[in-house]
Amino acid sequence: MATDQTPLVSIDKLRVEFRGEDGPIVGVEDVSFTIAPGETVCVVGESGSGKSVTSLSLMRLVEFGGGKITGGRLSFSLNGKQIDLAQTGSETMQAIRGDEIGMIFQEPMTSLNPVFTVERQMTDGLRVHRGMSRSQARERALELLRQVRIPEPERRLGQYPHELSGGMRQRVMIAMAMACEPRLLIADEPTTALDVTIQAEILALIDRLKRDTGMAVLFITHDMAVVAQMADRVVVMYRGRLVEEGPVERIFAAPQEAYTRKLLAAVPRLGEMRGKPAPEPMRLVGEEPARAAPPPADAVPDPLLQVSNLTTRYPVKGGLFRRTVANVHAVEDVSFEIGRGQTLALVGESGCGKSSCGRSILRLSEPTSGEILLDRTDIRALSARDLRRRAWRDMQMVFQDPFASLNPYMRLRDQVAEPIRNYRIETGGGVEDRVADLFDRVELPRAFMSRFPHELSGGQRQRVAIARALAVNPKLIIADEAVSALDVSVQAQVLNLMMELQAELGVSYLFISHDMAVVERVAHRVGVMYLGRLVEIGTRQQVFENPQHSYTKSLLSAVPVADPTQRTIREDLKFRPIPSPVFPLDHTPAPSVYDAIAPGHRVLRGDAGLGAD
Amino acid sequence: MKVPAAFRSAKGIVGALVVLTVLAVAILAPLLIPADWATRMDMRARLAPPSWAHPLGTDQLGRDLLFRVLLGAQTSIFIAVAAVMMSIVIGLPLGLISGYVGRTTDNVLMRLVDTLLSFPALLLALTISAVLGPNLQNTIIAIGIAFTPFLARIIRGEALRVAQMPYVEAARTAGNSDWRLITLHVLPNIMPAVIVQATISLAFAILAEAGLSFLGLGTQPPDASWGLMIQASRDYLDRAPWTALVPGAAVAMTVLGLNMFGDALRDALDPRARGEA
């Protein structure tokens, strides 16, 4: 934070161009900022803002992606001299990469080479850059693994990347980046692919390493909450340009630019719904605040959906004749209900079974046992034909990836019209009118009807997916991470649309999400899942304000808060990867037993395999 | 009709021109050139280099290579196109059903395909052709059957991938029948792979016909086909390289043109590459 010394890096009027079919495309233009030694600078922006291009330029890796630095200076102080990284030859650059500047990437799965052991990957750099012997390099690798607090470091050295969990892989990546004690660490969305509890640990680790070694950190992220927890200074980017720069407290307390205000407003903050019984629309700057919101939940004597003891297992095939050798217990004895016009959110980390649960209700994955009653219709008793004709008439799904859930070869009009024709909601000219109505409903221009999916942005596509789900006037929409792939401002718009539709049409949602802050905003009731089980369920206030299960508590405490004055991230060493849900064929799991805390608030007895606290 | 943007690129234009030219030659040459011009022997000009009398030279029997290559186009192209179409007609539904339905159906169909795949394609074609007897129709059937497993395998893999895409699941919950799912949602999305494989297969089919002809099971001398011409030239490569170069160039040009045409066709079908709006 000492800004009076000479900056370690000073970027001056950086301009990067990419080759396009019709001449060069500007990726980054007129971007200038500095990084002082020992400082964390967060570059934040939505997709296409040029934040990654900026960091890749600093490593001169942007050239491998077809980009070219066409202007500006990238001063880096090396051995007391200032060198311009934009003009440096490839040999010097190779020496700087890894040695002076370390980098960690988003995807710990793909940034480690799957065919080499951890030891090989870690020691290669040390032997090349530092000329260490084999045993010296091994010693140093062990030391580094201890520094990033990996349990049983000796054993890890002999393991391959696939044997490590995502969080552990990212720790190895960080250890590798730290190997030569770089003076600058570039972290490009290092926690985006990780679960929230692992994210908290990795963020704390980076912060501690920064303080211990005095290196500077350039942290690229789209997540304002992560910025609030990590940054000393913030650089806000939008469409390849720098919008605003300043100390983190100032940016959050008094943002100067309209775009920064908009970005901050759209971020849901965990805890801000405290004491409010009903969901509330997201704030959007520059838009009418009077959006309709669903009414509060009242006790429902006649629930729309009743799920009892739902269990879904996937067979693990193996051996010569591909027999079933084990089962993945994806959903294990789960029971809940959803009231009419209400939203139940299922939250949990990856692999907890929340998506499988949603798919099982639609029978896109066939449940193993249990009962699903939709409006008193027994869904599991339906034949394949009736499932199509009746169940999906009442239940629809919105998928996570808006780029994969629309057929690229079909016009949007036809995709939205399909359910209308198939279920004979309308016939003849009425179909076109209904499609047009639906486009109005999801606030898309009617001109989009004759377009193809690729001509739309992610948020627009997700609106089309919602229009398609609404086409049959369903009673229930299962939204599986429906806004997770969207930029934060687009996410806020789509969430508001969903809430508005609920208020007006009375549709119920099963809202599957990993994002606690979003769930707090939209849900009437919340179910927390862990290892296939529902560990806690209750109204939003019950679960968020009075969490009872130890897993719910640890999940809530791991969520970064989008407020730099409340730095909650600290390195607790409860290293608990989620145990495997794969069990042998003869395994009979114990039934889920719940304790009633309050009316509607149930907590799983026992720790669900969480391990002692 | 508007010409799709894909066919307005340099690659698309060249590809379309070559394919049209080859087709025109294949169709028009037999109508315009007397058939015996390709078999007329000039014993004084055996293995003659290109000259005014024989612009592309002559072969070992003094037959004019220009006329042979023009008249041979019909046989080669017809056999290749018909054989590949046959393999698509059989392989496409086979692969689609196998990939879409999965489970036992997939296992049974694919083991069948694997059995066929375990024989070299040419050997398979040879056997079929030998059993059925050497004539044009049986040559097509032999090559068509020999190429079917490759196509079925590739289509099955693609169908398997596409059938698991969220948009197919979304279309399923939109109330579509299996038939509509396969024809409207799976099929268009695997067409790029089918087109690429088909254009490659056409080239191999031309060569396969050559192989069969060489062994006396395809085109029968003295009729001309490109494959037969290449095979016949092998003894004279050192003395008269043009005997191989002329039919070889015809095959190479056709294959190159087909590949460019196939790429353009694939792009023309893909809304993402159409470049409208």
Coarse shape of chain B: globular
Assembly of the depicted chains: heterodimer
Kindly report the average pLDDT value of chain B: 85
Major sheet of chain A: size, sense and barrel closure? 8 strands, mixed
| Cα-to-Cα separation, first versus last residue of chain A | 37 Å
Strand content of chain B: under 5%
The backbone outline of chain A, from C-alpha atoms, is: globular
Top-tier CATH class of the largest domain in chain A: Alpha Beta
Number of domains of chain B: 1
Low-confidence stretches of chain B: none
CATH topology of chain B: MetI-like fold
Question: Layout of helices and strands, plus pairs?
Answer:
The complex is a heterodimer of chains A (613) and B (277).
Chain A: E1 9-20, E2 23-35, E3 40-44, H1 51-58, E4 67-78, E5 81-84, H2 90-96, E6 101-104, H3 118-130, H4 134-147, H5 153-157, H6 166-178, E7 184-188, H7 196-213, E8 216-221, H8 224-230, E9 233-238, E10 241-247, H9 248-253, H10 258-266, E11 305-318, E12 323-338, E13 343-347, H11 354-362, E14 369-374, E15 377-378, H12 384-394, E16 395-398, H13 412-422, H14 429-441, H15 458-470, E17 476-480, H16 488-505, E18 508-513, H17 516-522, E19 525-530, E20 533-539, H18 540-545, H19 550-558, E21 582-584, E22 594-598, E23 601-604
Parallel strand pairs in A: 3-8, 3-9, 6-7, 7-8, 13-18, 13-19, 16-17, 17-18
Antiparallel strand pairs in A: 1-2, 1-4, 4-5, 9-10, 11-12, 11-14, 12-21, 14-15, 19-20, 20-23, 22-23
Helix pairs in contact in A: 3-4, 4-6, 6-7, 7-19, 10-16, 13-14, 13-15, 14-15, 15-16
Chain B: H1 10-32, H2 65-101, H3 103-117, H4 121-132, H5 136-163, H6 166-173, H7 178-214, H8 226-232, H9 242-269
Helix pairs in contact in B: 1-2, 1-9, 2-3, 2-5, 2-7, 2-9, 3-5, 4-5, 5-7, 6-7, 7-8, 7-9, 8-9
Please characterize this protein's 3D structure.
The complex is a heterodimer of chains A (about 625) and B (about 280). Chain A is α/β, with parallel strands linked by helices and about 625 residues long. Chain A folds into three domains: about 1-100 and about 185-265, P-loop containing nucleotide triphosphate hydrolases (Rossmann fold, 3-Layer(aba) Sandwich), CATH 3.40.50.300; about 110-180, no CATH class; about 305-320 and about 330-580 and about 585-605, Rossmann fold, CATH 3.40.50.300. Chain A has 19 helices and 23 strands. In chain A, the strands form four sheets. Chain A has an eight-stranded mixed sheet with strand order 16-17-18-13-19-20-23-22, sandwiched between helices. In chain A, strands 6-7-8-3-9-10 form a six-stranded mixed sheet, with helices on both faces. A five-stranded antiparallel sheet of chain A has the order 15-14-11-12-21. In chain A, a hairpin with a 2-residue loop joins strand 9 and strand 10 (about 240-245). Chain A is globular, with a radius of gyration of 26 Å. Chain A starts with 8 loop residues before the first strand and ends in a 9-residue tail after the last strand. In chain A, about 50% of the residues are buried. The radius of gyration of chain B is 22 Å and the shape is globular. Chain B has one domain (about 25-35, about 55-270): MetI-like fold, CATH 1.10.3720.10. Chain B has helices at about 10-30, 65-100, 105-115, 120-130, 135-165, 165-175, 180-215, 225-230, 240-270. In chain B, helix 1 (about 10-30) packs across helix 9, helix 6 (about 165-175) crosses helix 7 and helix 7 packs parallel to helix 8. With about 280 residues, chain B is mainly alpha-helical. At the A-B interface, helix 12, strand 16 and helix 13 of A face helix 6 and helix 7 of B.
